[in-house]
Amino acid sequence: MKNILVITALLAAAFAAGCKPSTNETTAQQLDKAQAETKVAAQQIRDYTFAQKAEFVATMKTQLADLNRDLEEISAKIEKSSETARAEAKPKLAALRDQATQLSKRLDEVTNATESTWGTVKVDFDKAYAALKDGFAQTRQWVSDKIAP
Q1: Structural domains in the chain plus CATH codes
Q2: pLDDT in 10s for each residue of the chain, 149 residues
């Protein structure tokens, strides 16, 4: 239960940061902070045991739904921007959608994991999750830099 709360708190903080840098943090500081939070979340993922698989799957399904909702918000913001920005953002959004699809597939593998495959599928999920979070951080930064709020 503690792992769920920590992961949820970290992701909530990352989402709350939004697309615009705060007045006290530079863009580079925000990116560094997001990367550090991703590392902490990744460590929390590694701490789940096979006995906690159902809890892990439920938590990650919620996180994946949150990420997909965030992707739609970013996409809507981009759709309201200039044609040039939309054209430039199209491959970025496609990459995020592909990463989200891969993460969903990895979550299916976690759901079907046996005790003997647990370690491997959890590591694969961790890598896909980190890649998606990194992609989101970069895309949020791009949106912040290129598109007015």
Answers
A1: 2-146 (1.20.120)
A2: 444 434 444 444 444 444 444 444 565 565 566 655 655 555 557 678 889 999 999 999 999 999 999 999 989 988 988 899 889 999 999 999 999 999 999 999 999 999 999 999 999 999 999 999 999 899 888 888 887 66
Q: What is the DSSP string of 47-96?
A: T--GGGHHHHHHHHHHHHHHHHHHHHHHHHHHHTS-HHHHHHHHHHHHHH
pTM more than 0.70? no
> Tell me, what DSSP letter sits at residue 135?
H
Asked if residue 126 lies in contact with residue 148, where contact means CB atoms within 8 angstroms, the answer is no
Query: Which run of H or of E encompasses 134?
Result: helix 118-146
Q: For residue 137, count other CB atoms closer than 10 A to its CB.
A: 20
Query: HSE-up of 98 (CA within 13 Å, CB side)?
Result: 8
